[in-house]
Design brief:
Layout lengths: L1 H19 L4 H12 L4 H9 L9 H12 L10 H11 L5 H9 L11 H28 L7 E2 H24 L13 H6 L10 E2 L1 H15 L6
Antiparallel strand pairs: 1-2
Helix pairs in contact: 1-2, 3-4, 3-5, 7-8, 7-10, 8-10
Organism: Argiope bruennichi
Pfam family, one: TPGS1_C
GO molecular function: microtubule binding
């Protein structure tokens, strides 16, 4: 009996490894087996979702598993707002601290409020999209920096921000309508057409720091994403 349980555990671990395709398989397996013994259901749900992108083919399956896991806190009440908010906080743990409160205000529910799967799905997808968005915005900023500067010219940043809104909306809609979409939102790639069309006579540059650029980018995210039905 113990051998059968061990075989099932190993099979599930291998399937999870093939499903996620992590960059560090050994670390992934170590975390996987640790989560098998985890009693904190929020931690288990976070584990199921933390490596996902909105383009991952197994995303819907993971959402269902995570929701089923986190609902086990109360069979009668189901998922409540306090636990749901705790999950969202952990999902965006690596995002800028000064933007987390603004982000959570758009998604959190009352602590005793029942959270349906549709609400859960929308909130988690938005959190995953937010993490992906922040990573790509940071990469875009590094590409906008010139001459080994730790800041980017303000006029380049303004061009990027103007294009970002449309790019974000199109990328999010594409992820929902097509299983075979690109693996990125396309935000980091905005630097190529912007820099390609630069003239030789550049204006005198005011420079923008990463925190300012990221803050303005997140404002665009918070403004545009509620318009998209995730």
């Amino acid at each position: 009996m113990e051998d059968d349980s061990l075989d099932r555990a190993l099979q599930y671990a291998i399937l999870a490894l093939l499903d996620v395709k992590p960059k560090d398989p050994i670390k992934f397996l170590a975390t996987h087996f640790q989560m098998e013994c985890e009693t904190n259901l929020v931690a288990k749900a976070v584990y199921l979702l933390q490596d996902m992108t909105i383009y991952h083919p197994a995303l819907e399956e993971r959402l269902l598993k995570a929701y089923g896991t986190i609902c086990q806190y109360s069979e009668e009440e189901g998922l409540t707002g306090d636990i749901y908010t705790d999950l969202l906080v952990k999902l965006i743990a690596d995002s800028p601290a000064y933007q987390k409160d603004n982000f959570l205000q758009h998604l959190q529910c009352q602590s005793t409020e029942y959270v349906s799967f549709d609400v859960f799905r929308s909130g988690v997808l938005t959190s995953i999209l937010f993490n992906q968005f922040v990573l790509e915005v940071k990469l875009l900023f590094t590409k906008l920096c010139i001459e080994n500067h730790d800041s980017a010219p303000a006029f380049l940043c303004k061009k990027a921000l103007r294009k970002m809104s449309k790019c974000l909306t199109e990328a999010a809609k594409r992820s929902i309508s097509s299983v075979e979409g690109p693996c990125t939102l396309g935000i980091a790639e905005l630097s190529s057409p912007i820099r390609k069309n630069l003239t030789k006579n550049l204006p005198t540059a005011d420079y923008v720091k990463i925190n300012t650029f990221l803050s303005e980018s997140v404002e665009i995210f918070l403004r545009e994403v509620p318009k998209i039905k995730l």
